[in-house]
Amino acid sequence: MIGTGAFKYFGLTVAALAAMTAPSLAYTAYVSNEKGNSVSVVDTDTLKTIATIKTGERPRGIEVSRDGKFVFVATGDDNTIQIIDTATRKVAGDLPSGPDPEQFALDPAGQFLYVANEDDAAVTVIDVAARKAVAKIPVGVEPEGIAISPDGKTVICTSETTSMAHFIDTTDRKVVANVLVGSRPRSAAFKPDGSELWITSEVGGGLSIVDPATRKITKTVRFAIPGLRAEKIQPVGINITRDGKLGFIHLGPSNRIAVVDGTTHEVLKYLLVGQRVWHGAFTPDGKYLLAANGLSNDVSVIDVASLKVIKSIQVGELPWGVAMGPK
Amino acid sequence: MGRHAAWLRLLRNLPRKLPFPKGTLRLAVAACIAASGIGAPVLAQSQTIKIGYLNGPLSKEKISLIDIPAPNDGLAGAQLAIDDNNTTGSFIGQRFELIESKIDEDADPAPAVKALADQGVAFIAANLPANQLLQAADAGKASGEILINAGAPDERLREQDCRANVIHVAPTRYMLADALAQYLVLRKWRNWFLVSGSHDGDKAFADALRHAARRFGAKIVAEKEFKDTGGARRTDSGLAEVQRQMIDLTQGTSDYDILVAADESEVFAGYLPYRTWIPRPVAGSAGLVPTTWDAAFDQWGALQLQNRFKKKYRRFMTPLDMQLWTAVRIVGEAAAHTNSADGTKLFAYIKSPDFSVAAFKGQKLTLRDWNLQLRQPILLFDGRNTVSISPQEGFLHQSSELDTLGLDRPETKCKLQ
User: Cα–Cα distance between B294 and B386 in angstroms, integer?
Assistant: First the structure.
């Protein structure tokens, strides 16, 4: 139950209960370092990097297994998803991801892993226990973003050059609908209650709010930062709080994270973080959001309650994303 | 619609006595119609969009063997974009086709343009010298043809000779010169030794470099012209000759920071690096070269395009390939957003403020509304790696920093009719 891709949005009731009765449990954040070919291990109690795990070539997408025992990291240049044992902090095996995996997501049951193959215009479905690829679904050009609906019935894949979000039925394993969004959609995320699907367009510069039932864009959120060129605002990662009240949009080379109201979709605040912020993850108790700043080689820690950036933690080279696990 | 009418006819002509009430049958038929999608809102029916590629012979006169273009230079880029358009198109019922049309050097392109128009082509991507491009644009005007210039760098095509039915993807000489100048000035390499070739294109590039120097604060401290006296580029033992020639050419000037060469005709500049009289770097047509693409470029997702290209064509992607890819993608983007195959609708969308194209340059690329020139960052390539990308940090502009490259709105002579 602890720590999966879908987990980013759900949080963990057990940990929350524990947090109420005892001093906060420390969680472990795993940060993929794209250039450094490593994963940095960060203690979220001390907010320090405590270890560095060597991985294969070009690690990017990163998730923690449901039971917290393993970290999955997509090593794009090795064309595989590596499995890291969190106890030994060593690579223990790999999953047949298909070529050039970047983003992937684990379904709510923790049974299947859906990975976007950027070079192949396809999504590969992997049976995690069997460590076998069981299906390959053709999508648009340069697929990247993957998100799974809270009910596990739909997988969303965004194709960067086709500029579409594809709706994939998980039973039939077929694309059943497509919506054209702003240029170069990088990431997709569902609200924890499944009522909205958010999609960022890196080059288009906006955030599309999509109704998952009608599969139509209901609103496009635009960002504007005083004194900053519009071109620098390139939305990439999305993190929505468990209660769906706040969404954090990582705006790339503008070095800021936009805080978006989950209901009105108004931009409430811009948080100044490190350089080229792309992806992040909440601690399981929802207290902190850790965001990876690719060009300043650090991770920014945001206190969610006060919406303040409280610390920067040095990690490896060109950090891409963050995943959370138990200590 | 025909099937729906047929079902209604069947219903009306049913025999009087049925084993079940007619109402049930009507319900069942309605369900069948609904399930088959007849009468339901239909997505774009299969639309076919034909794009032309009009080109002349590729120049094989290069100083380096490595630079001799492949026979499909440019064409491959266009074909890859057609594939990418078709992948997107498969989700929205659109199909793209490329129709290549080769014409001879100096030949009148009008018959070729007419032949493309007759086949239902609205957009013609072109790699032609300026004169032929203008002839093609004028020949196609009556039938609504829109040319996309993917090869000619001439300023006049975007200035006094601009045309309302020409979109420019190729950069101008001024854009290339400005991109280089910004970097040199940023590095404080302000004193330039300008060496120009003797052909028209060379002189035009030299003018662009002089303009860039004035604009950004560099100083041309020495100037020479290299006269092309003919002769072969491929010779068996010519290296010794070249070594002597380059020393003679570059000897005897005052000191300078960098030698900037204007040699579009590829007669001498490739011989300059490491052969200058005093040890100085070379830029312009050799050494540090401003360009729209290079095979080593991997920023902003470009690696994905490079991989796709190499996998299919088994060679490196050239700037011409990239310019043609961008040209064909412009049409694809417009078609996807308008859900139309109609040339007039597509062109209207391309000219609208909503239009942009993503071309792995880290920001969306848009058209300058005064002359339909694509704004774009320019790479500085050393032959092996991308050294820098202009516009450089610190060069400001009131609307788009990309407009610090090339002639800007207040300076333009273009009046699109």
Answer: 7
